[in-house]
Amino acid sequence: MIMKRTDGSSSNDDVPTGASASFPYDRITVERFRKSFPRARWSDELKAWFVPGKTAARRFNRWLEQELAGSNVHADSRGRDAYAFDPIVSKYLLVHQDRLEVQTPYSRSVVNTMRDVPFAFWDPDRRAWTVPFRSYEQLHRRWAEIEAAAIRNEPEARKQRGAEAGVSARPGVTRTCYRTPPQALSAGP
Question: What is the pTM of this model?
Fold first, then answer.
């Protein structure tokens, strides 16, 4: 739901004082808006609702905060239901009462994928991605990609790939990057 607030105050007495609000049409939201602001009128010129009064902007901001908080609760509830119906079972996902946490080994592809999940954010203290339940469906769609990248970047898998490539996997040994393949360096002229 996108809502905008503008003050209509002016020193001119012809222009009423108030706030305008515009949001995508949703019958239920409009009913709640009309119930909260019975003096509000639709303005064809503004293509928005106009709420008269000196405190209209403040009242509208308070209503907007309540609306957004209520929609988040509903979306989180839907996400919890989706998780209960089709849970992600993985060692990389921790489920808490109010959120989900994704803890994987570092992978650039995991980072890029998690950035595409709405409302997901990196928590540096926990060293994990925090995802609210409202984003569960988006996380579920991307989970196969996230888990595959996490498995690829496990320390054991990286060591095995390094050993297969002929690079030492011992701790404390620096790896050498060659611009040319090592076989070309050892071959004579």
Answer: 0.52
